[in-house]
Specification:
Strand order of the largest sheet: 2-1-3-10-4
CATH architecture of the largest domain: 3-Layer(aba) Sandwich
Order of helices and strands: HHEHEHEHEEEHHEHEHEEHH
Number of domains: 2
Largest sheet: 5 strands, mixed
Shape: globular
Distance between the termini: 98 Å
Number of strands: 10
Structural class: alpha/beta
CATH topology of the largest domain: D-Maltodextrin-Binding Protein, domain 2
CATH superfamily of the largest domain: Periplasmic binding protein-like II
Helix content: 25-40%
Radius of gyration: 27 Å
Strand content: 15-25%
Length: about 280
């Protein structure tokens, strides 16, 4: 083979390599397109259906009592407006301490109105709270009520395991403590408490997972888990309705965006989502 032929073959090889690299340099090693998985090109999305990226993020600190609906609504708001929503869930008192110490965030949504009162006393939120939905405390047991719990005094029985929210950190913890003190049952029930949950969500989970026989929870628990949870109403004088409110955090650097998100949570669309998840959207009678 002559030197001229060898040089020509090497030139062709280099062109193939360079061309191949040019086709693949924008693909990550594990990227997969819709056409590769379905055999068809990905469907075109109309431009009107893609909200413009605003570059803004609304930072929300929320009690876990609102999590089922608020998580869905955050995603909906982001999809509809292009404004990102970042939500930290936890005990209402725990998240209040977090954003107060950090002096950071835009919206506070505690699990009940009493923690909003604490936030206002700490001067951690702007004046003017907005009520989103309503909750009523109740005795909650596993479906079928295997321990035959009928009233509050049954929580003091030696054969039941009780889980309560952590007082001063979880809205249900403060409410349970108040109810038990008011009825003179606090000292009798205390030995039956298997654990104190760090959020309203955990109170429910402990019951659903069989770690508790009975909890002092919210009426919404039975509506969210109808196949696993039953509710036993408390006497009316103890079952004082509470509400989940929202306020703008004092240190918000974008209060107008915070107010816009709160306004969205009161819209017909958002109230429908709350209702779907079992929350009461009108004041209980």
């Amino acid at each position: 083979m002559t030197l001229r032929v060898i040089a020509g073959l090497m030139s062709v090889s280099m062109l193939v390599v360079v061309g191949g690299a040019g086709c693949s340099r924008h693909r990550s090693p594990d990227a997969t397109t819709a056409s590769e998985t379905t055999g068809a090109p990905p469907p075109a999305v109309p431009q009107a259906a893609r909200p413009a990226e605003s570059g803004k993020t609304v930072i929300v600190f929320a009690g876990a009592a609102s999590k089922p609906a608020l998580a869905e609504l955050g995603a909906k708001y982001e999809a509809e407006t292009g404004v990102k929503v970042s939500i930290t869930f936890g005990g209402s008192g725990a998240v209040l301490t977090q954003f107060s110490q950090e002096q950071y965030g835009d919206v506070y949504v505690p699990g009940s109105d009493d923690f909003m009162g604490k936030a206002e006393k700490k001067d951690a939120v702007l004046s003017g709270r907005t009520v989103l939905v309503y909750l009523v405390p109740a005795i909650c047991v596993a479906k079928g009520n295997p321990k035959n719990v009928r009233e509050l005094k049954d929580l003091a029985r030696s054969d039941v395991r009780v889980v309560l929210g952590q007082p001063k950190s979880v809205c249900l913890g403060d409410i349970a403590e108040s109810i038990l003190v008011e009825t003179g049952l606090a000292d009798k029930v205390k030995p039956r408490v298997a654990s104190y949950a760090s959020s309203c969500e955990e109170v429910l989970n402990q019951l659903v997972l069989g770690e508790a026989d009975v909890v002092i929870g919210w009426d919404v628990f039975a509506r969210q888990q109808p196949g696993k949870v039953e509710m036993i109403p408390l006497p009316k004088e103890l079952a004082r309705p509470r509400n989940i409110p929202a306020s703008v955090i004092k240190w918000s650097k974008q209060p107008e965006e915070a107010k816009a998100f709160i306004k969205y949570l009161t819209s017909a669309e958002a109230q429908g989502v709350f209702s779907k998840h079992g929350y009461t959207v009108t004041p209980p009678s």
